[in-house]
Amino acid sequence: MGNREDLMAGAKRCLYEKGYGRTTARDIATASGVSLAAIGYHFGSKDTLLNAAMIEAIGEMGEALGAVVYGANQVSDDPEVRFAAVWNGLRDVFVEHRGLWAAQFEALAQAGHNPELARALEEVQKEGRLGLAAVFQGVTEVPDNDEELARGTFYQILLAGYVAQWLAAPELAPDGFEFLRGLRLVSGSVLGADAGAPGADATR
Protein backbone atom coordinates (compact mmCIF):
# COMPACT_ATOMS: atom_id res chain seq x y z
CA MET A 1 0.00 0.00 0.00
CA GLY A 2 1.03 3.61 -0.54
CA ASN A 3 0.97 6.36 2.08
CA ARG A 4 -2.60 7.36 1.23
CA GLU A 5 -3.90 3.83 1.72
CA ASP A 6 -1.83 3.43 4.89
CA LEU A 7 -3.36 6.62 6.28
CA MET A 8 -6.88 5.40 5.53
CA ALA A 9 -6.18 2.07 7.22
CA GLY A 10 -4.65 3.81 10.23
CA ALA A 11 -7.54 6.25 10.53
CA LYS A 12 -10.06 3.40 10.45
CA ARG A 13 -8.10 1.58 13.15
CA CYS A 14 -8.19 4.73 15.29
CA LEU A 15 -11.95 5.06 14.85
CA TYR A 16 -12.39 1.57 16.25
CA GLU A 17 -9.89 1.97 19.08
CA LYS A 18 -10.16 5.64 20.11
CA GLY A 19 -13.40 6.89 18.59
CA TYR A 20 -14.08 9.97 16.48
CA GLY A 21 -13.58 12.80 18.95
CA ARG A 22 -10.42 11.55 20.68
CA THR A 23 -8.44 10.61 17.58
CA THR A 24 -5.60 13.04 16.86
CA ALA A 25 -3.48 13.50 13.77
CA ARG A 26 -0.54 12.00 15.67
CA ASP A 27 -2.64 8.95 16.55
CA ILE A 28 -3.36 8.38 12.87
CA ALA A 29 0.25 8.92 11.83
CA THR A 30 1.44 6.45 14.47
CA ALA A 31 -1.16 3.84 13.52
CA SER A 32 -0.30 4.28 9.85
CA GLY A 33 3.47 4.37 10.17
CA VAL A 34 3.36 7.54 8.08
CA SER A 35 4.53 11.08 8.84
CA LEU A 36 2.19 13.79 10.09
CA ALA A 37 2.99 15.85 7.00
CA ALA A 38 1.57 13.10 4.79
CA ILE A 39 -1.91 13.72 6.23
CA GLY A 40 -1.91 17.29 4.95
CA TYR A 41 -0.37 16.28 1.63
CA HIS A 42 -2.88 13.54 0.82
CA PHE A 43 -6.05 14.77 2.55
CA GLY A 44 -5.59 18.42 3.48
CA SER A 45 -6.53 17.93 7.13
CA LYS A 46 -7.01 15.31 9.81
CA ASP A 47 -10.77 15.89 9.80
CA THR A 48 -11.07 15.28 6.06
CA LEU A 49 -9.11 12.04 6.43
CA LEU A 50 -11.14 10.91 9.43
CA ASN A 51 -14.44 11.65 7.66
CA ALA A 52 -13.34 9.69 4.59
CA ALA A 53 -12.20 6.82 6.79
CA MET A 54 -15.55 6.83 8.59
CA ILE A 55 -17.51 6.57 5.35
CA GLU A 56 -15.27 3.80 4.01
CA ALA A 57 -15.42 1.85 7.27
CA ILE A 58 -19.21 2.09 7.34
CA GLY A 59 -19.29 0.66 3.83
CA GLU A 60 -17.09 -2.25 4.89
CA MET A 61 -19.28 -2.89 7.89
CA GLY A 62 -22.27 -2.88 5.55
CA GLU A 63 -20.75 -5.91 3.85
CA ALA A 64 -20.69 -7.68 7.22
CA LEU A 65 -24.34 -6.73 7.75
CA GLY A 66 -25.18 -8.12 4.34
CA ALA A 67 -23.50 -11.44 5.11
CA VAL A 68 -25.46 -11.78 8.36
CA VAL A 69 -28.76 -10.96 6.69
CA TYR A 70 -28.05 -13.36 3.83
CA GLY A 71 -27.35 -16.16 6.30
CA ALA A 72 -30.46 -15.38 8.34
CA ASN A 73 -32.60 -15.43 5.22
CA GLN A 74 -31.58 -19.04 4.61
CA VAL A 75 -32.93 -20.40 7.92
CA SER A 76 -36.59 -20.62 6.96
CA ASP A 77 -39.20 -19.98 4.30
CA ASP A 78 -41.28 -18.17 6.94
CA PRO A 79 -40.68 -14.39 6.63
CA GLU A 80 -41.38 -13.86 10.33
CA VAL A 81 -38.75 -16.40 11.34
CA ARG A 82 -36.29 -14.80 8.93
CA PHE A 83 -37.03 -11.33 10.32
CA ALA A 84 -36.28 -12.49 13.87
CA ALA A 85 -33.17 -14.37 12.74
CA VAL A 86 -31.79 -11.25 11.06
CA TRP A 87 -31.98 -9.16 14.22
CA ASN A 88 -30.52 -11.96 16.31
CA GLY A 89 -27.63 -12.26 13.87
CA LEU A 90 -26.91 -8.54 13.92
CA ARG A 91 -25.79 -8.75 17.53
CA ASP A 92 -22.60 -10.45 16.35
CA VAL A 93 -21.93 -7.49 14.05
CA PHE A 94 -22.42 -5.13 16.99
CA VAL A 95 -19.82 -7.02 19.01
CA GLU A 96 -17.26 -7.14 16.20
CA HIS A 97 -17.71 -3.50 15.17
CA ARG A 98 -18.61 -1.91 18.50
CA GLY A 99 -15.91 0.75 18.24
CA LEU A 100 -17.14 1.95 14.86
CA TRP A 101 -20.78 2.08 15.97
CA ALA A 102 -19.76 4.23 18.94
CA ALA A 103 -17.63 6.45 16.69
CA GLN A 104 -20.62 7.02 14.40
CA PHE A 105 -22.72 8.28 17.30
CA GLU A 106 -19.84 10.57 18.33
CA ALA A 107 -19.65 11.92 14.81
CA LEU A 108 -23.40 12.53 14.64
CA ALA A 109 -23.22 14.50 17.89
CA GLN A 110 -20.51 16.73 16.41
CA ALA A 111 -22.03 17.17 12.96
CA GLY A 112 -23.97 20.27 14.01
CA HIS A 113 -20.70 22.05 14.74
CA ASN A 114 -18.70 20.55 11.89
CA PRO A 115 -20.05 21.55 8.45
CA GLU A 116 -17.57 19.33 6.60
CA LEU A 117 -18.64 16.29 8.61
CA ALA A 118 -22.32 17.19 8.21
CA ARG A 119 -21.91 17.33 4.43
CA ALA A 120 -20.06 14.02 4.36
CA LEU A 121 -22.82 12.31 6.32
CA GLU A 122 -25.59 13.94 4.29
CA GLU A 123 -24.05 12.85 1.00
CA VAL A 124 -24.25 9.17 1.91
CA GLN A 125 -27.75 9.15 3.43
CA LYS A 126 -29.62 8.21 0.27
CA GLU A 127 -27.05 5.61 -0.75
CA GLY A 128 -27.11 4.18 2.77
CA ARG A 129 -30.88 3.87 2.84
CA LEU A 130 -31.01 2.14 -0.51
CA GLY A 131 -28.19 -0.11 0.64
CA LEU A 132 -30.12 -1.13 3.75
CA ALA A 133 -33.24 -1.77 1.68
CA ALA A 134 -31.18 -4.14 -0.47
CA VAL A 135 -29.41 -5.81 2.47
CA PHE A 136 -32.58 -6.56 4.38
CA GLN A 137 -34.23 -8.02 1.28
CA GLY A 138 -31.22 -10.20 0.54
CA VAL A 139 -30.49 -8.66 -2.87
CA THR A 140 -27.45 -6.85 -4.23
CA GLU A 141 -29.28 -3.65 -5.15
CA VAL A 142 -32.72 -2.09 -5.36
CA PRO A 143 -34.24 0.54 -7.65
CA ASP A 144 -33.78 4.18 -6.68
CA ASN A 145 -37.44 4.94 -6.00
CA ASP A 146 -39.66 6.24 -3.20
CA GLU A 147 -40.75 2.77 -2.10
CA GLU A 148 -37.23 1.47 -1.59
CA LEU A 149 -36.12 4.71 0.08
CA ALA A 150 -39.04 4.39 2.51
CA ARG A 151 -38.13 0.78 3.20
CA GLY A 152 -34.48 1.67 3.76
CA THR A 153 -35.37 4.59 6.02
CA PHE A 154 -37.52 2.29 8.17
CA TYR A 155 -34.65 -0.17 8.57
CA GLN A 156 -32.18 2.65 9.18
CA ILE A 157 -34.27 3.93 12.08
CA LEU A 158 -34.70 0.45 13.54
CA LEU A 159 -30.99 -0.24 13.23
CA ALA A 160 -29.91 3.07 14.78
CA GLY A 161 -32.25 2.55 17.72
CA TYR A 162 -31.05 -1.00 18.22
CA VAL A 163 -27.41 0.11 18.18
CA ALA A 164 -28.11 2.89 20.69
CA GLN A 165 -29.80 0.42 23.05
CA TRP A 166 -27.02 -2.11 22.63
CA LEU A 167 -24.27 0.46 23.28
CA ALA A 168 -26.02 1.79 26.39
CA ALA A 169 -27.12 -1.50 27.96
CA PRO A 170 -26.50 -4.60 25.85
CA GLU A 171 -28.14 -6.86 28.43
CA LEU A 172 -31.43 -5.00 27.86
CA ALA A 173 -31.26 -4.98 24.07
CA PRO A 174 -34.18 -6.89 22.52
CA ASP A 175 -33.73 -10.13 20.63
CA GLY A 176 -35.17 -10.84 17.21
CA PHE A 177 -38.43 -12.25 18.52
CA GLU A 178 -39.05 -9.13 20.61
CA PHE A 179 -38.54 -7.11 17.45
CA LEU A 180 -41.04 -9.31 15.68
CA ARG A 181 -43.59 -8.95 18.46
CA GLY A 182 -43.22 -5.17 18.37
CA LEU A 183 -43.63 -5.15 14.60
CA ARG A 184 -46.84 -7.15 14.88
CA LEU A 185 -48.25 -4.88 17.58
CA VAL A 186 -47.40 -1.64 15.82
CA SER A 187 -48.54 -2.88 12.41
CA GLY A 188 -51.81 -4.09 13.90
CA SER A 189 -52.56 -0.87 15.78
CA VAL A 190 -51.55 1.47 12.95
CA LEU A 191 -52.59 -0.45 9.85
CA GLY A 192 -55.10 -2.91 11.27
CA ALA A 193 -56.32 -5.63 8.98
CA ASP A 194 -54.87 -3.78 5.98
CA ALA A 195 -51.26 -4.25 7.13
CA GLY A 196 -49.21 -5.34 4.16
CA ALA A 197 -52.19 -5.35 1.80
CA PRO A 198 -51.77 -3.92 -1.71
CA GLY A 199 -52.67 -0.26 -1.80
CA ALA A 200 -52.46 0.08 1.97
CA ASP A 201 -50.06 3.04 1.77
CA ALA A 202 -52.39 5.94 2.55
CA THR A 203 -49.64 8.54 2.09
CA ARG A 204 -49.79 8.38 -1.69
Automatic annotation (TrEMBL):
The entry's keywords: DNA-binding
Annotated ranges, domain HTH tetR-type: 1-61
Annotated GO MF terms: DNA-binding transcription factor activity; transcription cis-regulatory region binding
Gene3D superfamilies the record matches: Tetracycline Repressor, domain 2 (1.10.357.10)
PROSITE patterns linked to this entry: HTH_TETR_2
Stretches that traverse the bilayer: none
Entry annotated with the keyword Protein transport: no
The entry's DNA-binding region: 24-43
Designated name of the protein: TetR family transcriptional regulator
Native source species: Kitasatospora aureofaciens
Organism taxonomic ancestry: Bacteria, Bacillati, Actinomycetota, Actinomycetes, Kitasatosporales
